[in-house]
Batch of 4 targets.
Target 1
Amino acid sequence: MHTEQQAIPISVDADEVECQVETWLTVPAQRRSSTLFVLVSGSTYSHLYWDWPTDPRYSYVRWMAESGHATLNFDRLGLGMSSHPPAKEVTVRAQAAVVHQLVSLARSGGLGGESFSRVVLVGHSLGSLISGTSAAIYGDVDAVIETGTSGFAAAAQDGDARVAEGWMWPATSDPKFADSDRGDGYFTTPPGMRERIFFHMPGVEDAVVSDDERLKETMTSGEISELGSMAELLAEVRVPVLCTTGEYDRIVSALGGDLPVWRVFELAADSAPGANFSFSVLPKMGHNLTQHRKAPAAYATMTNWLREVGMVE
């Protein structure tokens, strides 16, 4: 497989503020289709969520490449090697607009000269919300996979209270970001919190959790301010959508009224706005599917669904 790293100029908001996002286009030596999978990370995660650097067993990028499929991985606005605008400008809608611009480049050959006839968004947690929002607003993709979420059924509210409840704290309070350009309105998880909310520890190696703390990223006040209103758009997605997460996903359970995950998904399936929505709960896993020992089983579930809806052979 070959990976090309590229910084791509992006216009943000109505004032067309110029930023850049760092991208990684991975194309296998023998491509099996002209479909590109655009990977959208969750809150406090950079592109490394999808391409875990300390153990290739957890890399979705590698899994897809070995299956013959191309992926576009990137650092969202406010994260990693991409631009870090003022936090209030880094909203769910702004992130969705970035995804739309990347999709347009993918179809036009603007990504390293490669062009793709079909595009599938693969999101995690906040990245699932961003992916669904982008698909609903722009209608320019062929399918969406939303992991770490129950989709439109999530009971998130604008200005979600997780920060006040201690799930996050100001990035300026964290030693990792204290001297960075993540100023007011940037948040991250305090020490020890990630194990509580992201993992089902019987299914995770201790080394993964310690690496996760070391590699953690941020979330913005702009994103938090739109969690509820943007979630309402997800029911408007018209292409095939898979919603999937682990049976011990504490975030999905909390946003579903503290019900068991299987019950949250059961209720979501009952209220699905169309037959294009599918739901799957994965056993013995928590919120972060890519970092559990059973990650390959999650990837296989996603691939089987993609095969069912005609996105892969």
Target 2
Amino acid sequence: MDGQGRILLAPNLRQHGGLDKQVALVGDGNKFEVWDADTYLREHGAWLDEAKDPGSELSEELANLAL
């Protein structure tokens, strides 16, 4: 992080991830992922649509998840 709290990514990593100005930081357990904002919104919508599909099944880990 720089002095203003920004996370600095090397140009080759930004290019590989297709990162431009707008990004999404997504928490994933004990790490986070940096996504291009438009790509994340598109993929997130597809994941939600897939979860709503009555033919889709949850993995065993998700089926057994409880609080």
Target 3
Amino acid sequence: MTNQKRLKQTSLLVILVTALAACASVPQVTRLQTEAGSASPPYETILVVAVLKSFDSRRYLEKEVVTALEAKGTRAVAMTSLADSRTPLNRNTIIPLIEQVEADAVLVTQLTGLQTDAKLKNRNPQTSYNVRSTDYYNVFSVEVTEYVEPPAVQYEFGVQLRTDLFSADSKESVWAIAQTSSEKTDINGPGFYSGYADQAAAIVRALRQDKLVAK
């Protein structure tokens, strides 16, 4: 692999992690499939799988989905807690994990679209004042020091995700949604990964509304 190609792939991973970690809007959810067919919800144990290029992004999103599910009474297990970055994401690796955790459903989220726009933004300058009196009545000497940091790059993202719920028995999708959100990085500090929590909350809220997990 050439250095240029490796750099390009690394840059894409950084953008993906940053996008999901940015200050996020509330994701908009569209139902793609709501007919459960032969499924028998509510599901009690769910294996959570995020299909993303970055292992850290997978881990963060899966963790937030698990937390959101378990807060509402559904047992959930993140795939990244059972497998490392060397484990391929495919049917042959997921099925044994379903049996291991005795899951009755698998929740799979994948990135379907990402648009980025970068702009230079000035940071807020920090200013200090030193006020001293003089020999003249009501006249003061004011010394102003301004600390200006270099401009920062602010990224704006359009993120599209798709989430499918698969029945462990039939191995078929019984429910699916699309999530879209607009996100922006904070130029004055690192992201706090609120985007992962927002996406997870949207997924679990839709699952509960459609009565596929416990309320």
Target 4
Amino acid sequence: MPGRFSIARLFGPSYSLRCVVFHDISASESPFTRGIGVSITPDKFEAALRFLTRYYTPVSLQEVLANCDGQGLPPRPLMVTFDDGYASVMEWAAPLCSKFGVPAVFFLNAAFLDNHRLAPDSLVCFVANVLGMETINAAVRIVKGADTPKLNCMAEVSSRFFPTISLAERGVFLDALAHLGRINEHQLAEEARLYITRKQLCELASLGFEIGNHTYTHVRCRSLTTGDLAEEVDRNKADLEAASGKKVRSFSVPYGSSKDLSRDLVAHLRLSGHEVAFLSESAANLRGANQFHFDRVAMQAANDGTLFFQIEVLPRLRATRNSFFRTRN
């Protein structure tokens, strides 16, 4: 393995900070997660932690903030994060991270704590798996009109539909989805118990894990107005701080796209007391990286070889590609 790291350097420039992101840790997918690629089994998660702690040095958010240029960090520094606040992180992620001595950041949406509501992606996923895409397309037509091109899969809802609508229009869509599917969202959320509770949030904070901002309702940030930013960013920060008793310093962009990390959003994050922001485009963070543009690798690997390729090779190639296109433009 040490020889592979030397070889990996041939694929791209120096790598200052590795960041990885997990979501749901579950032995099997449910109708709320099947098809959106957020789940990893407990065995694979533990194997990933063994690999990460063997070949990298896990670092905390505080260490990263104190050394944003990467100069003062230990060899092969790596940061572990979790998005969306699935209940499974309390069963598997927190105990295993504690076992392996891995500091981690949990990025949460306060709107879904205590399971009174479903996150939009969870509701869309449930409807697609149980009722089919036609119900989703019927709800889309209510918002966008009868001539709207058909969406063929769940991924197109988040990649093609959500980025084109306002926060208010998304509310209309979700209400239509529940109505057409004859779904009592509150009851379904309470039965599914997908997300952690406020009590569990306090437990995470008491164990020394960092709590981060992931917007209040997991929204595509490119569609947010100035007023929406206060509702989605500031409200979530204040709610999480009140529930955890800890300062929220970091922000994770829902869906992870740099297209959602606008200059206005970065300016708002700075003014609201955030110190760092994370994407999920799986590109290498080069030395001197912008602390409001740290990238992360979404983890789904099954073995050490694939993990190495995901963390060391592909991100370097993507960083080289991105640099090339920036230079040409």
